[in-house]
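Q: I'm building a small set of examples for a reading group on sequence design. Run inverse folding on the following structure and report the sequence directly after it, with nothing in between.
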């Protein structure tokens, strides 16, 4: 008897925040494998802000998810069947397996991971795509140097929390911007940031003046919008602004809000540069080894916010846009 695969397929392109009716929850039997393929039982799925962009039509760094297609998502699981000599039954793996219970892959973009070193969800978090984004975004795009003043927005999230901790490891002064007292307390008390600004209750401009009296050398931007504009007004000469994301703009039904303070780049001989983590894929292994070392030494903490149940996907995804996730948002599909 073939296994039955439950999955979420894109029903229509959302306008604003995705709605339940933008998805179809379907079931179909798992087809037999062809030569070279593996069958993966999906255990954990990574829910990422970028998924909102993948649902839109138009040119981007990856093609949009087509109407009727299984929603694209990074995930981790276990190989159940293999017709590929590179993978054995029982291997734990990560890849773009989608929002579904079973995935068939040809093995090309599938990575074996070892749960002796870290639990599986951590490979979707600090030792996975978000951690790589923080590492390469800060160290390469941001050209971070010891002793600099770094500001990070989305600071309690999957990417931001890792970026802030890496900046501390590199001997920088780190100020995080996050929503709410609990997230602000966490990044200072538990992650060792020097200061936190609660953008929901504080005047960000004043707080930046207070915490970065000499200005900002590196701004790692995860949110865009007003916060980007406010930080731009307080950069130092030669500052680097890393455009990692702009979550405040992803569900806009009006055009994306650009920074009106961009002439600060001119005055300060500063730069603002976008980064896409996938461009660094060839060096993920090296970065993950270094980050695993920091984790083993207790210098880098990983936090996952795990929600159980594939069927909760449409609502769980929205936690990202409501600021309800605390740590890397992961959907748990099955125990083992
Ligand atoms: N360039 C790349 O290759 C790459 C790769 C991965 C991720 N990213 C980007 O990195 C950013 C963070 O991703 P993540 O996976 O780490 O997500 P995350 O930070 O774990 O979760 C999203 C967080 O964004 C904040 N947020 C939501 N709406 C906001 C708004 N209107 N204004 C300000 N903050 C808002 C919320 O935190 P608060 O409670 O603090 O508001 C929420 O918890 C996203 O922009 C994502 O697209 C880029």
């Amino acid at each position: 008897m073939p296994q039955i695969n439950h999955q979420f397929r894109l029903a229509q392109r959302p306008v604003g925040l995705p709605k339940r009716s933008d998805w179809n929850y379907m079931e179909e039997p798992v087809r037999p494998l062809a030569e070279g393929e593996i069958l993966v039982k999906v255990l954990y799925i990574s829910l990422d802000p970028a998924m909102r962009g993948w649902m839109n039509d138009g040119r981007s760094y990856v093609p949009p998810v087509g109407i009727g297609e299984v929603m694209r998502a990074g995930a981790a699981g276990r190989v159940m069947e293999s017709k590929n000599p590179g993978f054995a039954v029982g291997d734990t793996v990560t890849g773009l397996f989608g929002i579904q219970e079973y995935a068939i892959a040809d093995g090309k973009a599938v990575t074996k991971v070892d749960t002796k070193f870290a639990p599986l969800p951590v490979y979707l978090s600090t030792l996975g795509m978000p951690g790589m984004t923080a590492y390469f975004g800060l160290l390469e795009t941001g050209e971070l140097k010891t002793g600099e003043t770094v500001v990070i927005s989305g600071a309690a999230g999957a990417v931001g929390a890792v970026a802030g901790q890496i900046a501390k490891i590199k001997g920088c002064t780190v100020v995080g911007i996050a929503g709410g007292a609990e997230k602000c307390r966490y990044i200072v008390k538990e992650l060792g940031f020097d200061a936190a600004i609660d953008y929901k209750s504080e005047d960000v401009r004043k707080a930046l003046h207070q915490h970065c009296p000499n200005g900002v050398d590196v701004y790692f931007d995860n949110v865009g919008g007003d916060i980007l504009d406010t930080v731009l007004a307080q950069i130092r000469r030669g500052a680097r602004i890393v455009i990692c994301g702009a979550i405040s703009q992803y569900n806009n039904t009006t055009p994306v809000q650009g920074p009106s303070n961009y002439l600060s780049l001119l005055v300060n001989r500063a730069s603002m540069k976008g980064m896409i983590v996938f461009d660094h894929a060839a060096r993920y292994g090296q970065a993950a080894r270094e980050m695993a070392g920091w984790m083993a030494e207790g210098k880098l903490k990983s936090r996952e916010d795990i929600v159980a149940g594939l069927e909760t996907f449409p609502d769980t995804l929205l936690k990202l846009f409501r600021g309800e996730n605390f740590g890397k948002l992961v959907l748990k599909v099955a125990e083992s």
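The two ends are 20 Å apart (CA to CA).
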